[in-house]
Design goal:
single chain; alpha/beta; Urease, subunit C, domain 1; TIM Barrel; 2 domains; 4-stranded mixed sheet; 12 helices; 17 strands; isoguanine deaminase activity; Amidohydro_3; Metal-dep_hydrolase_composite; cytosine deaminase activity
Length: 434
Amino acid sequence: MLQLKIVNARLPVASGLGSAPLSVAVRNGRIAEIAPVIDGEAERVIDAAGRLLSPPFTDPHFHMDATLSLGLPRLNVSGTLLEGIALWGELKPLLTVEAVAERALRYCDLAVAQGLLAIRTHVDVCDDRLTAVEALLEVRKQVAPYIDLQLVAFPQDGLYRDPTARANLLRALDMGVDVVGGIPHFERTMADGAASVRELAELAADRGLMLDLHCDESDDPLSRHVETLAAETVRCGLQGRAAGSHLSSMHSMDNYYASKLIPLIAEAELHAIPNPLINITLQGRSDTYPRRRGLTRIPELRAAGVNVALGQDCTMDPWYPLGSADMLDVAHMAIHAVPMTSREAMAWTHTAVTVNNRLAMGLPDPTLREGAPADMVLLQARDEIEAVRLRATRLAVIKAGQVIAETPARQAALTVPGRPSTLDPAAYAPAAEG
């Protein structure tokens, strides 16, 4: 008997299986068959009713040590990146392992409900107690059955700027943290920033780890540490294993320099991880008008063959008072902020938050295919564009063939004379979205 059978489902275009409804059979936690009709009984059958069956969502850039701490010990009044960093510095001495773990676990509950089953979180190591590291190592164990949680050793206050950051980063890696992190633009000088990139790249190479740097999260067009990151990635043989997160300064760079930089990023096989929700709210704060959006050059990076992923970054913390673990919200904002409204580009944002994000984390391609793990999300939408447009309800979240979260379909009851009594938002799209 099959573990699970889903019938009448549409798969993403990226699956290469067309747009006609299909059935998906699951046996022993893996996809056993994908076909128009599948015979045989199953422990559970789900009728997708022509809706989209998607790979699960992935977030390649988050700060779980700070999540859900909004208002502790106070609010970020200016809304700026620097006040957020200062506020986090006030909160760090007050942290306990228990409190960090509890907030992180609550966030993971929210993530599961949203079909978010893989997260890379940066963990601040500029705390000699390594409180957040200890807490999130324990959380990683607890959520392992349903979330791939990847930890980055992140010297928030600068590898060199903070006197014990380097030693703490090494301790964190020795404790089992997965990825080497850094923040070169926050060092005291451009030279220190470049030196930190070199040292961190060498450290990642020596330890056989991935590298993910907060890079040029600034409105300053002369913040060009990503150029050094690309060069060091090649020198240290980290191609495909290194990421530049944010890359906000590229928004403000002149086109000539960007035309030189982007091919270097592509040559280094560097993953680019902008964070649309946060970049457009933290950047441009010193501008009057016109005000910069601060989001990196996504279309140009894509055109050059760079793997562009999209991160959430923050949820209800010192830097961002909103957020809901919804990667479709991230995709939705990217479309508006770039902007990119071609049908190809809008559908691409769904691919970004499912496939590209996992590639940036060094995880296997999650495309739904026979033999792959049965990790899936059934969405109240007919295709990828509609999923992003509606930030579609997650009807069922499936891990290894087991339904681990369910949400009723969104449906409104109407009492308008002469009109339908119920309304499904996914049923009102023009034919172009069908």
